[in-house]
Design a protein that fits this description.
Mean pLDDT: 96
Number of helices: 11
CATH architecture: Alpha-Beta Barrel
Structural class: alpha/beta
Shape: globular
CATH superfamily: Aldolase class I
Low-confidence stretches: none
Distance between the termini: 18 Å
Strand content: 15-25%
CATH topology: TIM Barrel
Largest sheet: 8 strands, parallel, barrel
Number of domains: 1
Strand order of the largest sheet: 1-2-5-6-7-8-9-10
Oligomer: single chain
Order of helices and strands: EHEEEHEHHEHHEHEHEHEEEHH
Length: 300
């Protein structure tokens, strides 16, 4: 069984600044969070950009490149950038950073889904910024669209710039979508898959669902895939621990969960990374370095 890769998803495009003072917003804050998460044991990072003045998610390639360049200057972590962006962004906005950053990884969402986090609005009495409540409420009526044509376009652009797709899977049928592109010859095995559980509109974060995804992927790709797992909110540590036991890798971070334990906000991504690393090591598992993660993900 290979060493386990910890990915840190450091800020994302779901949580809003009013929810936690520890959510990184500026390029400098995001870079610092990545560096500290890497020191804590994260071999891979998943990066979004935000407007440094308001914290609003943005697909601005200039900001993304500033973040990626800053990370590269300070540590050797494997960098993955988002092409998920934020709900409501156009494909052009979501893809803009790929040719500019030429990151080793980029997310590639594997199908359309209702990705809803509008209930956040009910928990915020006094938002810090005007954009926050309309932004989260918009997810109640706008789907996260990822058509077959869109997925193909994303795969082709990533291949052009030497970026490996990280396929985000929210529903089991999305594995069939990935398999279709393998069948057409556009994708070569092994593929890299990130199971994302617990999103309102996707598969709930349960052990049964994780096992179902894992078993289905095994049958679909014949073992020629690398997988990781993320879980939204309170189920983060339980589900990622289960993933470790099943032989998978894990994604941790403030993009997926703002808490370190019930009722207690995480003060950093590194705090969450350390917790899952401690869990892994208590289970007798070894954590991959960035070099080892590259061997696992890219065969380098």
């Amino acid at each position: 069984m290979h060493k386990r890769i910890i990915t840190a998803a450091v800020t994302g495009a779901v949580h809003i600044p009013s929810m936690s003072e520890y959510l990184p917003i500026t390029p400098e804050q995001i870079i610092n969070e990545v560096v500290e998460a890497n020191k804590a044991g994260a071999a891979v990072v998943h990066v979004h950009a935000r407007n440094p003045k308001t914290g609003e998610p943005t697909g601005d390639p200039t900001l993304m490149k500033k973040i990626v360049d800053g990370i590269r200057e300070r540590c050797d972590v494997v960098i993955g950038i988002t092409t998920g962006g934020a709900i409501g962004m156009t494909s052009e906005e979501r893809l803009a950073a790929v040719p500019v950053c030429r990151a080793e990884l980029a997310s590639c969402n594997s199908g359309s889904v209702n990705f809803c986090f509008s209930p956040i609005a009910d928990k915020i009495a006094s938002p810090k910024f005007q954009w926050e409540i309309p932004f989260v409420k918009n997810t109640y009526k706008v789907p996260f669209a990822n058509t077959f044509q869109g997925i193909e376009d994303y795969i082709r652009l990533m291949e052009q710039y030497g970026t490996k797709p990280e396929f985000e899977v929210y529903e089991v049928g999305m594995l069939n979508n990935i398999a279709y592109f393998v069948k057409t010859g556009l994708l070569k095995l092994p593929v890299y898959i990130q199971f994302v559980l617990g999103v309102l509109g996707g598969l709930p974060a349960t052990f049964d669902n994780l096992l179902f995804l894992h078993n289905t992927a095994q049958k679909t790709f014949g073992g020629q895939y690398v997988w990781s797992c993320a879980a939204a909110g309170k189920d983060q540590f339980e589900i990622t621990t289960a993933a470790l036991l099943l032989g998978g890798n894990v994604r941790i971070g403030l993009e997926d969960n703002l808490f370190i334990e019930k009722g207690k906000l995480a003060k950093s991504n590194a705090e969450q990374v350390k917790k899952i690393r401690d869990i892994a090591e208590l289970l007798g598992l070894e954590i991959a370095t960035p070099k080892e993660a590259r061997d696992i993900l890219f065969g380098k």
